[in-house]
Amino acid sequence: RTPLDIAREKAGIVKPGGTLVLGETDPPLQAPFLEHGASRVLERGRDFGVTTNLVAHGGRLISLFTPEARYDDVFLALHGAHQADNAALALAAVEALLDRPLDTDLVTAVLGAARSPGRLEVVGHAPLLLLDGAHNVAGAHALRDALAQAFPASARTLVVGLLREKDPPEMLEALGVADAAHLIVCDAPSPRAHDADTVADAARHLGLPADRVEVIRDVAAAVDRALMVTPADGQIVVTGSLYTVGAARAAHGHPGPSTIPGPG
Question: How far is Cα 261 from Cα 174, in angstroms, rounded to an integer?
Fold first, then answer.
């Protein structure tokens, strides 16, 4: 499916006469949302958005604006520059629902305690063990950018399990597999999983040396292997599917919402 197909599908939630808080800024992708007859439209960048978005220890330092107020120098306890946009969208939506600005102390408390299981989630150290359910090319690029911004460069092991709907070479390139010290491919625990050998072959065809590619089909065993081959000052990134991340999260003592898979 194309981004426009996805936009058309998601636009079905917009009801005539309602209020639309629109985070999409690409005009062709905005169009399906604007065609559903919302009586009030708030657009990111025009009516709400982010004016400061800086890396901070454990997250981001951000400043946000909405039609109702400004919220300056707020700590957001999530990694990734895109999470500031998500925070602005959520804040604008709540204010639109309540038809009033929110208390600054409340906004500070909520964003400072924000959690997103399985999304740039750190669950271990020495080596760093990070889970991210990037299950499409855009998500893989966002993950790669966030790693470059928020974490020191070090030897990186990728643990990847994909679904069949994803193109292995495209996903692996977006994840930066060429820069990985080690790639461990597993089977996502889903009937729709890509065969791990197929994904590993794609990595080799992209030029990753065979001695840096390993197939371990079970997700938990793949993460255990990554812990063995990654130096203490290195990084392990488990990604490719929410199914893969959910299984890794449960296996390493973090059961919760991300163990219930989403769409990919």
Answer: 22
- Spatial contact of 223 and 213, defined as CB atoms under 8 Å apart: no
Rounded distance, CA 71 to CA 105, Å? 10
Model pLDDT for residues 229-252, shown as the tens digit of each residue = 999 999 999 999 999 999 999 987
Please identify which residue in the block is written with the tokens 């909520």: 110
Contact 188, 162 (CB under 8 A): yes
Burial class (CB in 10 A: 0-12, 13-18, 19+), 167: middle
Structure tokens, 106 = 């409340």
CA distance 219 to 131: 12
In angstroms, the CA 19 to CA 71 distance is 22
- Read off φ and ψ for residue 43, nearest 5 degrees: -110, 140
- Read off the pTM: 0.85
- Structure-block tokens of residue 56: 């901070």
Dump pLDDT digits (tens) for 176-217: 999 999 999 999 999 999 999 999 999 999 999 999 999 999
Which candidate, 141, 135, 257, 117, places its Cα nearest to that of 190?
135
Taking the C-alpha atoms of residue 229 and residue 110, their distance in angstroms, rounded to an integer, is: 38
Dihedral angle computed from the Cα positions of residues 1, 88, 35 and 165, in that order, rounded to the nearest 10 degrees: 10
Residue closest to 264 by CA, chosen among 248, 249, 251, 245: 245
Answer whether 233's CB lies under 8 Å from 151's CB: no
